[in-house]
Amino acid sequence: MDLSRRQFLGKAAISAGAAVMPLADVEAAVNDQPARRGGDPGKRYGMAIDLRRCIGCQACTVSCSIENQPPVGQFRTIVHQYEVKDNDSEDTAAVMLPRLCNQCDNPPCVPVCPVQATWQRKDGIVVVDNEQCVGCGYCVQACPYDARFINHDTQVADECNFCVHRLEAGLLPACVESCVGGARIIGDLNDPDSHINQVLRENYDDIKVLKPELNTRPHVFYIGMTDAFIERIQGESGLWFDSEHGGVMGAVS
């Protein structure tokens, strides 16, 4: 255990009341981003997910689990399946929504880390140093996309990092490589000729992100996503009704 980690744990032991950061403190820290480090400053990775191609097979979930070895029952990426019903027509449909770290340009998880174990590389990828992380969970609370968790085995923060170890070796992330429908496209947004930029240009009018009002500037772009999901997604189970977007009712599993 390094000095900074020992110092933090020592302070936590002295002040038992500081176990959870007050929400106001979390919100105040969001715009105080530490300097980015590591990675190629000439690149900016992003991912496009074409929901018209996603069949909910969970191949991405399985391949990610094999590649990154999170504990059983915890996932860096997963496809949530929704059953939606239009109350006017009574029609129902299954909707798939792959979830993962959104690799935001203004990531709320970064500035709340008391030991800077979570940071953003110069290529935009958010990573966690599991040797530095103290497992306080502040970043988990700060993430509005329910994309972070405390790893049950390591007791430190865990999340999708676009399989950065594979990208640096010239490979695709496990979820992209295994997607049978070709629904996931990753690439360099700074390269105008990249495949992802071509896809985004071709589908410009049909691109959405989750919770745009939070100004996190997510770099996971969804193609073919209904407006009912943009602000409503919280990651919780159960039925919900959205009167603002056609009276849609859904159940998430």
TrEMBL record:
InterPro entries with a match to the protein in the record: 4Fe4S_Fe-S-bd, 4Fe4S_Fe_S_CS, DsrO-like, ET_IronSulfur_Cluster-Binding, TAT_signal, TAT_signal_bac_arc
4Fe-4S ferredoxin-type domain sequence ranges: 45-74, 124-153
NCBIfam families: DsrO (NF045797), TAT_signal_seq (TIGR01409)
Keyword DNA damage listed: no
PROSITE patterns referenced in this protein's UniProt entry, alphabetically: 4FE4S_FER_1, 4FE4S_FER_2, TAT
Keyword Transferase: no
Identification of the protein by name: 4Fe-4S dicluster domain-containing protein
Keywords: 4Fe-4S, Iron, Iron-sulfur, Metal-binding, Signal
